[in-house]
Structure formats: structure tokens, C-alpha cells
Amino acid sequence: xxxxxxxxxxxxxxxxxxxxxxxxxxxxxxxxxxxxxxxxxxxxxxxxxxxxxxxxxxxxxxxxxxxxxxxxxxxxxxxxxxxxxxxxxxxxxxxxxxxxxxxxxxxxxxxxxxxxxxxxxxxxxxxxxxxxxxxxxxxxxxxxxxxxxxxxxxxxxxxxxxxxxxxxxxxxxxxxxxxxxxxxxxxxxxxxxxxxxxxxxxxxxxxxxxxxxxxxxxxxxxxxxxxxxxxxxxxxxxxxxxxxxxxxxxxxxxxx
Length: 256
Fold this sequence. Notes:
Elements: E1 6-15, E2 18-28, E3 33-37, H1 44-51, E4 59-64, E5 67-69, H2 74-79, E6 82-85, H3 97-101, H4 116-129, H5 146-159, E7 164-168, H6 176-192, E8 196-200, H7 204-210, E9 213-218, E10 221-227, H8 233-240, H9 246-254
Parallel strand pairs: 3-8, 3-9, 6-7, 7-8
Antiparallel strand pairs: 1-2, 1-4, 4-5, 9-10
């Protein structure tokens, strides 16, 4: 696809006198994983909160399928096809897989009773599509691994209409095996070809395993971007460090 599903142009966000984002550009294409990288304080969290409707930009434009958008709430962003999976996942560990899948969007009869059999089947089928097979969707989420919970949150976002899937450091608090579960899920979602994925991570290796494009932020500005074919491994490491040369960092440490 030659046209991005989402395009961000000259996005600026100010909090009082502080500029958190300064003319950020971003293009996200269906069927691709776009890694958003940068050190703490680079502006990644502010950017995804604007894209998901939590904050409103000070200046700049967001386009979805070429149409200008101005999200005033997460509900408006969700209606436009933006699905965000935050680190805390918004999951109740004491509730079942199905109840978490449909939380706040339960299917009910005309008398207000939940359609549990239908909901169980949908939750099972949607999870299976991206690699997790639950024989019992009534089991408590607390019995699932961290990687499986991430998959549940991703499947939920896709089922309820996400065309841009924003994943906020989905592997950060997981063990190595669970990290691989999440990376496999990301690749399965990408293989559908109809969903654009923004993958926020601090892990250089994970970004190289799944990303098709990269954008690097430092102090609220884009300091580098490009496709996987255009960016060398040493460039990824340098840009993740805010553009500092690794040899300069090593010299600073040696001088202490």
C-alpha cells in the first residue's frame, strides 16, 4: 500500500512553557510494524497519548486514511480505529478471559442478561486467530502468563475495530519466553495485512526482530527515521541513545 493509514504532520505539544513534542512527523502503514524508539523523556508517551485521544496537540495535524482528525477523547480515537494497549493492560485478574475481553461492551439480551455462550465463543475464536488457544475462556485471567494477557489485550483491541494498534512496551515486564510469545503475536497480527502497528520499545533486539520501519525520538523531536533496509544496526543503537555516538559514551564512562 502506497498511502499510510495514519499520517502525523508537524505535531507540537506544550505543557505550559515546556515543549514535550516539537514538530513530529510520523507515517504508519497497514501490514507493517513501526517501531517508535527513544530514551526516557524522549516524548514517546506524550505522542501515543495524543494519538489515542488522551491529550490534544497544541499544533499539527493527524490524518486517518487521508482525513484530518482532531481527537478530543479516547472514545473518539477508538471510533477512528486507534487501539492502544498500555503496559497495565486494563485487565481484572479475578475475572474470566471472556469478561475481560468484553469489559464494558458486554453482549446482552433484550432483558439485560449477558449472552455468555456467544461471548465465550467469540473470545476463544479471536484469541485463536493470533495464536492463543484457550479450551476454557471462563478461566480467570490471573491464571494466564504475562504474554497471554498481552495477547488477550491485543485480540480485544482488534475485535473492537483497531486499524492502528499502539503497543506500549508490551515486552518490558516479561520473561524471555513470554517476550517471544508477544513478538510472535505481533508478527501474526502484521501478517493479516490490514492493521498498522506502532511498537514502542526500549529493546533494540526486539525492534530488529519485528519492525519494518523506525522513528527515533529525543527530547521531543524526530532525530531519525526510515525503513529496516535503510537503517544499519549501529545506527539503531546510536539513535536509541539520543543520537550520541557510542564511543563518546564509552569515553565519558572511562573518564569517571
